[in-house]
Design a protein that fits this description.
Helix content is about 20%, strand content about 35%. The chain is built from two helices and six strands; from the N terminus they run E-H-E-E-E-E-H-E. Helix 1 packs antiparallel against helix 2.
């Protein structure tokens, strides 16, 4: 099993979520976060003054998938979230050693 974390633009969240459901993911977690990458934020103008927004709003999607589904899910996320502009986000893939369903105590891939 693998855990896939995707940091994406908030305006792409609904389309990525729908694409993941269509790809067959059974569950996902979404967190609203703030951060910045190499662009280091934005400079905006308000009432004639410049101000810097250091932390930009982002959405983090977390999905646990079977090993053979990783490439497909990563492709679905990257294709759906891509705008071609700086700030589209990143995808991270981590090993997930085990999963346990709290209600029944069931363990392993059958839980996901």
């Amino acid at each position: 099993m693998k855990k896939i974390e995707a940091i994406i633009r908030p305006n792409k969240l609904d389309s990525v979520r729908q694409a993941l459901i269509a790809a067959g993911t059974t569950g996902l977690m979404v967190t609203k976060i703030e951060g910045h990458g190499s662009q280091k934020g934005l400079t905006k103008h308000f009432r004639g003054k410049d101000y810097t927004v250091d932390l930009l709003p982002k959405s983090k999607i977390e999905v646990i998938v079977k090993d053979n589904e990783v490439d497909n899910i990563v492709e679905v996320i990257s294709t759906t979230a891509r705008t071609g502009e700086i700030g589209d986000g990143k995808i991270f893939v981590y090993p997930a050693e085990n999963s346990i369903r709290i209600r029944t105590g069931e363990k392993g891939e059958g839980v996901i």
